[in-house]
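notes to self, project folder thing:

trying the whole complex as one job this time. last attempt i did each chain seperately and stitching them together was a nightmare. two parts in total, labels are on each line so i dont mix them up again. if this works i'll redo the older ones the same way
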Amino acid sequence: MNLKQGILDGDKRAVARLISLAENGDPEAFKVIKELFHLTGRAQIIGITGPPGSGKSTLTDKLAKELRKRGNTVGIIAVDPTSPFTGGAILGDRIRMQDLTLDEGVFIRSMGTRGHLGGLSKATHAAIKILDIYGMDYIFVETVGVGQSEVDIVKTADTTILVLVPGLGDDIQALKAGIMEIGDIFVVNKSDREDSDRLVTEIEMMLDLKQGDTTWRPPVIKTIASNNIGIEELLSKAAEHFDFLISSSLLKSKRIDRIESEIISISKERFIDIIYNNPDTSVSIRELSKEIYEKKLDLYSAVDIILNNFNRKGVGLC
Amino acid sequence: MNTTKRIRVIIAKPGLDGHDRGAKVIARALRDAGMEVIYTGLRQTPEQIVETAIQEDADVIGLSSLSGAHLHLFSKVIELLREKKADNIIVIGGGVIPEEDIPELKKMGIAEVFTPGTSTKDIIDFIKSKVL
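result (full assembly):
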C-alpha cells in the first residue's frame, strides 16, 4: 500500500496504518508526515479531559454527532491507560461511540498510553497530524481518565474542555495546581445529579480568584451528555473560544508553543535513542549503573562519561 | 525511537446475544499478555466490526457468539474483510459453537475456533504464533 497516496485519496486503511507506524516509532510514518506537513494546521483540535467516569466518551460521541449534522468531518483519538506491568491495554472508549463507526466522515482511533505520563500517548501528536492531513475539520483528543497532574492536553489542544461530575471532592480540590487550571471550558456533566449547582458555584468561585490573563473567562456549562442536553451550547462555546484565539492572536502563539515543546520532546527521544542504541556512541548504561551501585562512581560523573563519549563520537545524528 | 509493535486485537460480539463475560475474560487475558485490546461492546453488526478493525489497524479480530448465529455472522465478517481488502486481519471465533460447525467455519476462513473450556494461554499462544 502506498501510504502517502492512500491518505491523500482518503483511504482509511492508509490512515490507520500510518498511525500504527507512528506509534511503533517507524520512520516511514514520519517520512509521510514530513512530505505532507504543509497540509497540517487546518483542523481545530479540541481536548476532552477529566476524571474517570465523568462521561468524556459519551460527550465526545454527542459532540461529533452534532458536528456531523452540520456537515463537518471529525477525527477522534481516544487514549486509555496501558498496564505498566504487562504493556497491555483494554481500549474501551469506542463502546460509547458505536453509532459513529460506520459514518464516512468520522475516524475513531483508540490508543494506549504505552508508558507515557501526562494523560496522552507519545504518538498522539503524530496521530493528530495524520488526521489533520486526512482532512478532518475537528479533531477530538480524549485523554485517559486524569487525576490531578495529567495536563499534557493543554499543550496539545487549541481548546481544552474539562469535564467534571458532582461528588468527587471538596472545594480545596478546586484550588490545587494542575488539572483545574487547564480548562478553557468547564463542563459539569451528569448535572441531573444532586450537588451539581454547588459544583458550578465552586468552579465559578475558583475562576473569580484567577489572576493574570483575564481576557477569556472559561464558561461553566451543565450537560447531561447521555440525554444530549447541553451539547449545542458546549459546541457554540468551543466555537467562541476558537474565534477568541484567532482574534487575539493567541492561536498563533499557542501553536508556536506547541511546536516548540514537540521539538524538544522529539529531540529528547532521538537523543536518548542515540545514547542507548547507536553502537558508535553508546556506552553501557547498565555497566555504569552497576558501578554506581558499588559506589565506584556517582550518578553525575556517569552522565559526564556518557555525554563526553557522545561529544567525541557524536556523529550520525540523523 | 524506542517503541515496539504491540499486537492489536478487536474483541467483538456480533449479533443479538446479551452476555459478554466470556469476551471480557478473554480481553483481560490478552491485556495481561501485553496486547492492546479494543473492546467494542455488545450487539455489533459485521459491518461495524470490520470498520472498527480497519480504523484501529487490528492484527486480529476475536468474535464471540452465544446465540447460534455464528455461521451467518462470522461468514459475513470474512466476506466484508475480503471486500475491503483487509483480509490480512486474522479472525478467530469463540463462544457456544458446536463441534460439527468448526470445520465449516475454518473452511470459510476463520483461523481457529476456541470453545468453552479452552485455556486462555492457548488463545494467547495461537495469536502470537500468527502475528509475531
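what i see at first glance: Chain A touches chain B through 38 residues (CB under 8 Å).
need to look closer tmrw
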